[in-house]
Amino acid sequence: MGTAAVADNLEAEQEELFRQMIHDEVDKWVDELVVDVFDKDNQPTLMELSELFTKTRQQFLGACLQRVIEQKYSYLLAQVYSPCPKCGKSCKSRRYSSKQIVTMQGDSELNRPWFYCTDCSLGFCPLDEVLEISRKQHQFDIQKKAVNLSADVTFARARGAALLRRPPLTISGSLYCFIPDKLSYLITSR
Ligand SMILES: [Zn+2]
């Protein structure tokens, strides 16, 4: 068998394994849902069903994200030697180090090899470099969202303050039909 054929087989095996892992996670999610949803004495409302999905999907998607990483970067998780990022010296893995991460998808756990270069006194995890993992528990997608939200709130406050400083609105009768009820109430009651 040629090198390309071996690589194709490995890829297919990896894909099949990943598919199976995701199916297992779906089964776990369904198991969790059926307990609450299909109990004969329970008649959940749409809001309760939606809240149940919101609550359980984080756990499900966080687990799926973890599986994707474990399969996509399996070679980094099995790595025994890695070059030091500072001096290039080959370093042997000292131990596995577990890290809890929180993304927009939910919670995941990464158990990856940790290396230490004695020449540079530097500890490092190659997987963290490739994935660009934050040192904090909350990852960059959440940090970005928090910054955007904060900017939105600041903008909304500034806009609100500017609106309050504006002179009273004068709107012709024909335009009122395009203004939602609540807004037209606010305008007319000022
Ligand atoms: Zn080094």
- Element order: H for helix, E for strand: HHHEEEEHHH
Compute the number of helices.
6
Terminal Cα span: 81 Å
Fraction of residues in helices?
55-70%
How many domains comprise the coordinates?
2
- Mean pLDDT equals 84
Structure classification: alpha+beta
Beta fraction of the residues? 15-25%
Biggest β-sheet: count, sense, barrel? 4 strands, antiparallel
Question: Which of globular, elongated, flat, extended, rod-shaped describes the shape?
Answer: flat
Segments where pLDDT lies below 50 for 5+ residues?
A: 169-190
* Overall strand count: 4
Structure, explained:
- The chain has helices at 3-37, 46-72, 74-77, 126-131, 140-165, 181-188, and strands at 81-83, 90-103, 106-117, 122-124.
- Helices cover 56% and strands 17% of the residues.
- The chain is an alpha+beta fold and 190 residues long.
- The model is unreliable at 169-190 (pLDDT under 50).
- The protein folds into 2 domains: 1-72; 80-154, no CATH class.
- The protein is flat, with a radius of gyration of 27 Å.
- The longest helix has 35 residues, at 3-37.
- The protein is built from 6 helices and 4 strands; from the N terminus they run αααββββααα.
- The chain has a 4-stranded antiparallel sheet with strand order 1-2-3-4.
- Helix 1 (3-37) packs antiparallel against helix 2 (46-72).
- Residues 84, 86-87, 89, 117, 119-120, 122 line the site of zinc ion (ZN).
- Zinc ion binds next to loops.
